[in-house]
């Protein structure tokens, strides 16, 4: 049996009851270590689950062969920070499991794609999501322009195994160099889903390094008056 389980955005207690039951009945439990970072340690997860958790990187998950083979005779769980099919999809592993005629459980959870609703922006008014990577690219700027008058969620690059996370201020500098108005109001979201969530609504030029992760950035499109009123809470 193969379980692909979203474990939420914050800590060990964000897992659903269904997810926890499957984890505790698993022979092998893997945690992908490249989508994001939880606000708890691997040890916290293991203590709460009562099971050993194995950290794995992108190559292991995208290859998938070891998990598929083990799932033919044993119970295997892959844990995904956030939701299973949201910011980073795992559809190829799911397809491989279907092709192998495995019993598969999919357990969904909260994702950055819906957690941004805390800003007061309507989720129905977001356009295509984009990613701002460590290497230079003008794709995010094009997506922002093409999305307008819709809002744009910008996911920021990270390499958790190297403790490397992009700051919103770095992403903003990139966008300004590519034509974003420095006076444009933007929204910085920090540690969504946790008790330490921080939302900042300010001009692009005023965004400062925060040294808290993970972060994401929203470039608003045309704002409804109710969205504008709510964003005043974050100035």
What's the quick description here?
By secondary structure, this protein is of the alpha/beta class. The protein has helices at 17-24, 42-49, 58-63, 65-71, 91-99, 112-115, 139-147, 168-177, 225-231; strands at residues 2-6, 28-32, 54-56, 76-80, 104-107, 130-132, 152-156, 158-159, 164-165, 185-190, 198-203, 215-219. It is built from nine helices and twelve strands.
Features:
235 residues; alpha/beta; Cobalt-precorrin-4 Transmethylase, domain 1; Methyltransferase, Cobalt-precorrin-4 Transmethylase, Domain 2; 2 domains; 5-stranded parallel beta sheet; 9 helices; 12 strands; 29% helix
Structural write-up:
The protein has 235 residues and is α/β, with parallel strands linked by helices. It has 2 domains: 2-110, 3-Layer(aba) Sandwich (Cobalt-precorrin-4 Transmethylase, domain 1); 113-234, Tetrapyrrole methylase, C-terminal domain (Methyltransferase, Cobalt-precorrin-4 Transmethylase, Domain 2, 2-Layer Sandwich), CATH 3.30.950.10. Helices cover 29% and strands 22% of the residues. It has 9 helices and 12 strands. α2 (42-49) links the parallel β2 and β3 (54-56). The protein is elongated and about 60 Å long. The chain starts with a strand and ends with a helix.
Question: How would you summarize the topology of this molecule?
Answer:
Elements: E1 2-6, H1 17-24, E2 28-32, H2 42-49, E3 54-56, H3 58-63, H4 65-71, E4 76-80, H5 91-99, E5 104-107, H6 112-115, E6 130-132, H7 139-147, E7 152-156, E8 158-159, E9 164-165, H8 168-177, E10 185-190, E11 198-203, E12 215-219, H9 225-231
Parallel strand pairs: 1-4, 1-5, 2-3, 2-4, 6-7
Antiparallel strand pairs: 7-12, 8-9, 10-11, 10-12
């Amino acid at each position: 049996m193969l379980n692909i389980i979203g474990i939420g955005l914050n800590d060990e207690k964000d897992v659903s009851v269904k997810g926890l039951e499957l984890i505790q009945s698993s022979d092998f439990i893997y945690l992908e270590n490249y989508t994001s970072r939880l606000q708890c340690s691997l040890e916290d997860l293991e203590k709460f689950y009562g099971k050993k958790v194995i950290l794995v990187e992108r190559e292991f998950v995208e290859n998938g062969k070891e998990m598929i083979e083990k799932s033919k005779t044993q119970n295997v769980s892959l844990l995904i920070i956030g939701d299973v099919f949201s910011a980073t999809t795992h559809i190829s592993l799911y397809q491989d499991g279907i092709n192998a005629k495995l019993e598969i459980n999919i357990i969904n959870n909260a994702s950055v794609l819906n957690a941004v609703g805390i800003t007061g922006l309507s989720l129905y008014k977001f356009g295509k999501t984009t990613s701002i990577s460590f290497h230079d690219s003008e794709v995010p700027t094009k997506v922002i322009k093409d999305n307008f008058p819709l809002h744009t969620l910008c996911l920021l690059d990270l390499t958790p195994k190297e403790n490397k996370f992009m700051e919103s201020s770095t992403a903003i500098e990139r966008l300004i160099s590519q034509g974003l108005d420095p006076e444009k109001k933007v929204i910085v979201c920090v540690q969504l889903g946790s008790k330490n969530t921080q939302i900042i609504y300010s001009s692009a030029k005023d965004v400062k390094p925060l040294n808290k992760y993970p972060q994401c950035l929203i470039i608003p499109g045309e704002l409804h008056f109710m969205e504008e009123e709510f964003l005043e809470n974050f100035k």
